């Protein structure tokens, strides 16, 4: 039997005391040699593990930031989100992977995390740039049993969750540009894409995938491709600190679990509206609504319980804006 590195790392991470080789053998039903091999692998990956004869092993410190399946799994404190975990060093798009996993019958809460996305996707065919070694890209697979027209609100639930997790980890303010861009100091640190697949009868949701890309540790704005350089930033650029992406990921999923539960109680955003509005940068601001049916400007009041942005147009008409079709910009720039 293959010893699971994630299980051993999780046990070491959660123990304040030394864990004896025998305890590890008994717990996972493996040989001493197998344990020893895993410990060595972990050391090679940069985990500082102290071994004291007669006492056992102790995790002194892990790498400051590294993405791997075991690093992520050993930090997860969630109930259901991420309990089925796929990690890829490189993939095309985590949303595409999650949809495939959805087709293959993977359960609610399955996540795909990747270090590099070579074909990251944004809304309406746009592309998402992923800087390798510094970004967090993930997609969560959900199997909701509510009606399809509620699904667009999941994006706002995730936006709130990412904003709250980022604030918790950095101590700095993170805003939301409706519906789902996360912004620090008026620049974008995170984009999201939610996609829904219906049952063949087209009357029920088969699954929803909600993906997010967060710029975490790149230190140099020049690393972003030119087209986004003026609007993109990272947690590190804005706060001067490096973060552990697996730890951030755990916080995002924990927040999402809590917020999604609140959303499920009413199947609208009434329980989350107040917290969402606090983060909403467009609130009270002049906005330009890029509607394919015609662009207009107005003042954004905030979101309603369905997640629509209420805009009082310059001609005085109060209009709920539905997220599916449009982008919203500030009058003079991105926010
Ligand atoms: P907006 O309303 O800002 O256009 P959107 O929700 O329609 O946002 P998304 O799908 O979230 O857009 O993201 C795609 C867009 O994000 C791209 O068109 C590009 O402008 C920008 N972008 C792409 N990669 C990054 C990145 N790594 N960091 C910040 N912005 C990026």
Describe the structure.
The chain is of the alpha+beta class and 335 residues long. It folds into 3 domains: 5-61, Arc Repressor Mutant, subunit A (Orthogonal Bundle); 69-279, Bira Bifunctional Protein, Domain 2 (BirA Bifunctional Protein, domain 2), CATH 3.30.930; 286-330, SH3 type barrels (Roll), CATH 2.30.30. Helices cover 30% and strands 28% of the residues. The chain has 9 helices and 16 strands. The strands form 4 sheets. A 7-stranded mixed beta sheet has the order 3-4-7-11-10-9-8, with helices on both faces. A 5-stranded antiparallel beta sheet has the order 15-14-13-12-16. Strand 5 (120-121) and strand 6 form a beta hairpin. The protein is globular, with a radius of gyration of 22 Å. The N and C termini lie far apart (54 Å). The mean pLDDT is 96.
């Amino acid at each position: 039997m293959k010893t699971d590195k994630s299980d051993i790392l999780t046990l070491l991470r959660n123990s304040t005391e030394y864990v004896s080789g025998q305890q590890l053998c008994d717990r996972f039903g493996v040989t001493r040699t197998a344990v020893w091999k895993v410990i060595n692998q972990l050391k090679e990956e940069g985990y500082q593990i102290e071994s004291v004869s007669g006492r056992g092993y102790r995790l002194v410190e892990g790498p400051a930031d590294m993405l791997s399946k075991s690093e992520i799994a050993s930090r997860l404190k969630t109930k259901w989100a991420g309990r089925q975990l796929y990690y890829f060093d490189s993939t095309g798009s985590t949303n595409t992977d999650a949809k495939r996993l959805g087709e293959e019958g993977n359960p609610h809460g399955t996540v795909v995390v990747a270090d590099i996305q070579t074909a990251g996707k944004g809304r309406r065919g746009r592309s998402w740039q992923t800087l390798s070694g510094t970004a967090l890209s993930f997609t969560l697979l959900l199997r909701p049993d509510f009606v399809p027209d509620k699904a667009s609100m999941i994006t706002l639930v995730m936006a709130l969750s990412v904003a709250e997790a980022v604030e918790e980890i950095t101590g700095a303010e993170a805003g939301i540009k409706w519906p789902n861009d996360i912004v620090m100091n008026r620049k974008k640190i995170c984009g999201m894409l939610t996609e829904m697949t219906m049952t063949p009868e087209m009357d029920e949701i088969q699954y929803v995938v909600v993906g997010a890309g967060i710029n975490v540790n790149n230190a140099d704005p020049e690393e972003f491709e030119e087209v986004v350089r003026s609007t993109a930033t990272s947690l590190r650029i804005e706060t001067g600190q490096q973060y552990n992406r697996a730890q951030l990921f755990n916080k995002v999923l924990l927040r999402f679990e809590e917020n999604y539960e609140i959303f499920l109680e009413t199947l609208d955003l009434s329980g989350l509206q107040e917290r969402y509005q606090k983060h909403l940068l467009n609130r009270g601001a002049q906005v330009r609504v890029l509607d394919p049916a015609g662009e207009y400007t107005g003042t954004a009041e905030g979101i309603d319980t369905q997640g629509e942005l209420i805009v009082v147009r310059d001609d005085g008409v109060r209009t709920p804006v539905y997220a599916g079709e449009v982008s919203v910009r500030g009058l003079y720039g991105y926010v």
